[in-house]
From TrEMBL:
InterPro entries: Chitin-bd_dom (IPR002557), Chitin-bd_dom_sf (IPR036508). The lineage of its organism: Eukaryota, Metazoa, Ecdysozoa, Arthropoda, Hexapoda. Residues 1-19 form the signal peptide. This is Chitin-binding type-2 domain-containing protein. SUPFAM superfamilies: Invertebrate chitin-binding proteins. Keywords: Signal.
Length: 82
């Protein structure tokens, strides 16, 4: 019974951990951006080896191809701004 509780607790922790992208240690000349894994209007910007979650101003969504927020974005499976 104890083993089952430990396994369920570890699974809950694993599921709750966000998939944060890996960033370069040193900032390159051109900023590095990654799309959010759930929301179309959120994205990550790398700085000093860390990924910082940012959000586009309403009503815009993140366009990874243009690396900017835009009002004409195909969000695919990501959740768009409501």
């Amino acid at each position: 019974m104890k083993a089952v509780l430990v396994a369920v607790s570890l699974l809950a922790i694993f599921i709750s951990v966000k998939a944060v992208p890996s960033c370069p240690e040193k900032d390159p000349a051109v900023p590095v951006y990654y799309p959010h894994d759930v929301y179309c209007y959120k994205f990550y910007e790398c700085s000093d080896g860390h990924a910082y979650e940012l959000e586009c101003a309403p009503p815009l969504n993140w366009d990874q191809a243009k690396t900017t927020c835009d009002d004409q974005v195909d969000c695919g499976k990501l959740k768009p701004r409501a």
